[in-house]
Design brief:
Layout (H helix, E strand, L loop, with lengths): L12 H12 L4 E3 L1 H14 L4 E6 L11 H12 L3 E6 L21 H15 L11 E2 L1 H16 L4 H4 L3 H8 L6 H17 L3 E5 L3 H13 L6 E5 L25 H9 L3 H11 L4 H12 L4 H16 L2 H15 L8 E5 L4 E2 H7 L6 H9 L3 E3 L2 E2 L6 E2 L2 E7 L3 E7 L1
Helix pairs in contact: 1-2, 5-8, 8-9, 10-13, 10-14, 11-13, 13-14, 15-16
Keywords: Aminoacyl-tRNA synthetase, ATP-binding, Cytoplasm, Ligase, Nucleotide-binding, Protein biosynthesis, RNA-binding
Protein name: Tyrosine--tRNA ligase
Family: Belongs to the class-I aminoacyl-tRNA synthetase family. TyrS type 2 subfamily.
Length: 411
């Protein structure tokens, strides 16, 4: 709450300390920490929940585990009793945002935005209690601004300050074009904080500048400035690059349970602890104890299985996570999963590379041949080493790598 309130009871230091610990878990930055503590103290004393905002620009229909890092932090703060506000940027998405890129993100149509937003919320429910959240759309106030209001808003921030944003600064230095409308994006996002009377805004590290603009504008409009909290970008399966679909190092929240479980188990042991901090709901004390046991000689795979089961259960169910674990055990022993794709092909005798392509077990015959050369292809449990192998009419269990199976009937 941004208005000064007369407290009836002094805040409980233990509760405030606990809330600060929850807030700081896994964060990149909390700015300013002392102001956030004062907000927590006021909330504890008055019983008035704080208003916590996170903007979602639905530029793509699906989300992956990397996106859920911020959602998980929102859930932690929601469970403390505060009001979380998932804000759909249906207005800002029509502008387009560089977000650290060297070119603008293309604007979307209203139909694309609405379709993506629906999918977002279906997936967001797996992490956040959406029914207890205050879901808003920034077109509610941004459409009403009009040309006059937008110009007045632009008058509350200087070009010099705007050029401090890294991507604008670099593009200006190199002579790359910067459209005037790009300056409006951080201003409109910042005005969202004014409209919502936000106490805290969450975002990724790449959004820090825009979050600070919101803090500045609240002061311009006579409000108590929000604090800002940035979360780190989650490294993907490779442990190097941030999780991204374009880098194919991601786990989608709608992926099948067996695949999700196996992908989590594939991450490096060192990366596992960072994933525990950013993705797990386990208390940090429990994670620290688990790490100490691993450092003392316990098999790190035991800990990784716990993480894989927790993540899989969150997006599917406990039963699905248990089944995924058993499926992984079966596969590691060379067993065939209970349910595999059934494929019917013609053209016997058919070359193995062509069969893999037609059965969607390899994207091309050249990739199929590469997999064969690497010893990653099995037919009826036997490793295929001959790229010239041709299969006659019959039914075969074909396996590629550890996770791809198909029962192929060839005629």
């Amino acid at each position: 709450m941004n208005q000064a309130l007369v407290t009836k009871n002094p805040p409980d230091p233990a509760r405030v300390d606990a809330a600060m610990a929850v807030t700081l878990r896994g964060v990149e930055e909390l700015i300013p920490q002392d102001e956030w503590r004062k907000k927590l103290e006021r909330s504890d004393a008055t019983g008035v929940p704080l208003r916590i905002k996170f903007g979602l620009d639905p530029t793509a229909p699906d989300i992956h585990l990397g996106h859920t890092v911020v959602f998980s932090k929102m859930r932690q703060l929601q469970d403390l009793g505060h009001t979380v506000i998932p804000l759909i940027g249906d207005f800002t998405t029509t502008i387009g945002d560089p977000s650290g890129r060297n070119s603008t993100r293309p604007p979307l149509t209203r139909e694309q935005i609405e379709a993506n937003a629906k999918t977002y919320f279906d997936q967001l429910r797996t992490v956040l209690d959406v029914d207890r959240a205050e879901v808003r759309y920034n077109s509610e106030w941004s459409d009403a601004l009009g040309a006059r209001g937008m110009i007045q808003l632009a008058g509350k921030y200087t070009v010099a300050r705007m050029m401090e944003r890294n991507d604008f600064h670099e593009r200006f230095k190199t002579g790359s074009s910067i459209s005037v409308h790009e300056f409006l994006y951080p201003l409109v996002q910042g005005y969202d904080s004014v409209a919502l009377k936000s106490d805290l805004e969450l975002g990724g590290t790449d959004q820090k500048f825009n979050l600070l603009v919101g803090r500045h504008l609240q002061a311009e409009y006579g409000q108590e400035p929000q604090c800002i909290l940035t979360m780190p970008l989650l490294e993907g399966l490779d442990g190097v690059e941030k999780m991204s679909k374009s880098k194919n190092n991601y786990i989608g929240v709608t992926e099948e349970a067996n695949t999700m479980f196996a992908k989590v188990l594939s991450i490096a042991d060192t990366l596992m602890w960072r994933w525990f901090t950013l993705l797990s709901a386990r208390p940090e004390s429990e994670i620290a104890k688990l790490k100490a046991e691993v450092d003392g000689g316990r098999n790190p795979k035991d800990a990784k299985v716990l993480l894989a089961k927790e993540i899989t259960a969150r997006f599917h169910s406990v039963a699905a996570a248990d089944a995924a674990e058993q499926d992984f055990i079966n596969r590691s022993k060379g067993g065939v999963p209970d349910e595999i794709a059934q494929v019917t092909l013609s053209g016997a005798p058919l070359g193995i590379a062509q069969l893999l392509k037609q059965a969607n077990l390899a994207p091309s015959t050249s990739e199929a041949n590469r997999l064969i050369e690497g010893g990653g292809v099995r037919v009826d449990s036997g490793v295929v080493s001959d790229k010239g192998l041709k299969l006659g009419a019959g039914t075969y269990v074909v396996q590629v790598g550890k996770r791809k199976f198909a029962r192929v009937t060839l005629s």
